[in-house]
Amino acid sequence: MASLSWSCIFCLFLAGFGAQVGLCFSSKVYVVYMGSKSGDDPDDVLSQNHHMLASVHGGSIEQAQASHLYSYRHGFRGFAAKLTEEQASQIAQMPGVVSVFPNLKRKLHTTRSWDFMGLLGEETMEIPGHSTKNQVNVIIGFIDTGIWPESPSFSDANMPPVPAIWRGKCEPGEAFNASSCNRKVIGARYYMSGYEAEEDSARIVSFRSPRDSSGHGSHTASTAAGRYVTNVNYKGLATGGARGGAPMARIAVYKTCWDSGCYDVDLLAAFDDAIRDGVHLLSLSLGPDSPQGDYFKDAISIGSFHAASHGVLVVASVGNAGNSGSATNIAPWMITVGASSMDRDFASDIVLGNGMKFTGESLSLFEMNASARIISASEASAGYFTPYQSSYCLESSLNITKARGKVLVCRIAEGSSESKLEKSKVVKEAGGAGMVLIDEADKDVAIPFVIPSAIVGKEIGRKILSYINNTRKPMSKISSAKTVLDSQPAPRIASFSSKGPNSLTPEILKPDVAAPGLNILAAWSPAVGKMQFNILSGTSMSSPHITGIATLVKAVHPSWSPSAIKSAIMTTATILNKNGKPIRVDPEGRMANAFDYGSGFVDPRRVLDPGLVYDAHQIDYNAFLCSIGYDEKSLRLVTRDNSTCDQTFTTASSLNYPSITVPNLKDSFSVTRTVTNVGKPRSVYKAVVSNPVGINVTVVPGQLIFNRYGQKIKFTVNFKVAAPSKGYAFGFLTWRSEDARVTSPLVVRAAPSPMGLMR
């Protein structure tokens, strides 16, 4: 009995009064998803949910209410509750239930960037030939860690009244009240029932309110829609003005992410409220682990499906795993964003005693006044640690006598989740004067180290270690970090950015597009480090760049569907860097392909005039679901209407998507696409094809003649295997007119022949 927690003792006590002791020991939180919203009154929905729960609690309404956490009643149907595995299984068999799945935790995918992309101006962010002033009527919802509303990035100076369509609220809480909102931050809510049900209740949570205690939410919101702030810097680095992509747009905050992550039941509650509140776009810089599961057992896929059906565009980050097939947030009804560099780096110089000079990534402002001995950390092993273990500068692994006053060369393993910052603290505690960190994954992310430090890749690391091993008294000196512009061709795809192919539905290319996500300066929470602005890297930072651009498209074209906006962003992207050469991938410098950047690097100067768009609506996504195995019964559970699979596609490749992927080409295959004219009423487009290696591609018709705005024309793309090949091949189809280029990536893999050889 002594080993039992107080909660279990309390459960045993309750058992004497007829309570279900099994619930106490084995219950956990589940999502019960029931498809699209019905016409029922929200209060009736709550009552129906309680009765469903009562049926697995021996008819007890009291126990049903006690187990209930959320009811989803506005954008879609469902609820969250504490259930045993057996109870969850019973509910999964009930009429109207699409899926029942555990409350999983999602991870956060943790400025000059706008100048780099060609958007000029301080507050207007005008694109030549268009007025984007209507952005004051566009509302962006951010599902993240909250917001620091007092930041100058969220000032409402000179902003007009809140749009009349807004139905949200400013929810009070710790260090946050209704007056914390303004004409810029027009709504703020927070959700923690799922978090509290899963985490240790004794843990202290900062700000039980929409206030941001981590900085991530403030950073992403200001990147997309922050006001112009002059003379911003990070400890003297990256000095200049900071602004978001749509500085006059409105912000609504849905805080679902806490110190350990973001739980599904809270995320779904945020989606449900945001749809009802009236947001036009939703931005998420978080996601599941890879590989991602079924769409309707994934909270973000479910929420974004219903958001899209209500006309809300969802923009999400692809993830930071970096390896092939690791892309997440892969549903076709959202836009998924990879991360790139821009033309600014933060670097420290490493000067060796023989005069050799190397540059490494760093945000450390500490500088060595004089040269010092440089050794491999393996030479400073302590206690029971082997030299190999000490080479990774693990906690307590360094001998103070051997490390004091020296520069230590440490390693971080490829795929490691270790903190690079912590390694500099370990070296500092051992008395080290500086650190060179060899990143075996070559991830080019600058870190604010606590001593003079720099990150180098494997090749430079090998040269430094060679110098140490072949020199009697090796010396080095590390300078403080500095801002470096145009040091290498940009953009480059960041090494950490998750890559395709799509692990769940390979016929849908993911990511869709790339945007800056490396070393981005934006607003911050002073609760962390007492800073108002900070530099972060991740696809978390690239996603809000696309959110800002999508907001400008929505401002200029308010009637466009989410898929039309996505199409405009994708088909106008570029695969060339600022020097006009093909974009490359860090760290190896190989030429990038569609699995790295989707359609390419976003070009905001062209998005408002795409010429043609690939549009898709609910009926198209229904046909997509049928093509991947949903029958009419399961489809109707999701849609809660009379949808059928009569118009299904032969494969998911036939969804009217702005990219075309054929992952299993057997000799020949054809897909049909439909484009809508959003350019000049009278225009002629001609097809230009770059064939994937070993594949012949023809387009019928090869010319599209439009006579009016909004006119739709179908065309067919025919693929035929021409030569044996291995793996995926990449090409593109461009529809070219006098004024526009509308480009779609072509991604094809020939199926193995019956003999096991590639065709």
TrEMBL record:
The active site is at residues 144, 216, 540. InterPro entries: PA_domain, Peptidase_S8/S53_dom, Peptidase_S8/S53_dom_sf, Peptidase_S8_Ser-AS, Peptidase_S8_subtilisin-rel, Peptidases_S8_3, S8pro/Inhibitor_I9, S8pro/Inhibitor_I9_sf. Keywords: Hydrolase, Protease, Secreted, Serine protease, Signal. Gene3D superfamilies: 2.60.40.2310, 3.50.30.30, Peptidase S8 propeptide/proteinase inhibitor I9, Peptidase S8/S53 domain. It comes from the Eukaryota. Residues 655-748 form the Subtilisin-like protease fibronectin type-III domain. One of its GO terms (biological process) is proteolysis. This is PROPROTEIN CONVERTASE SUBTILISIN/KEXIN. It comes from Salix viminalis.
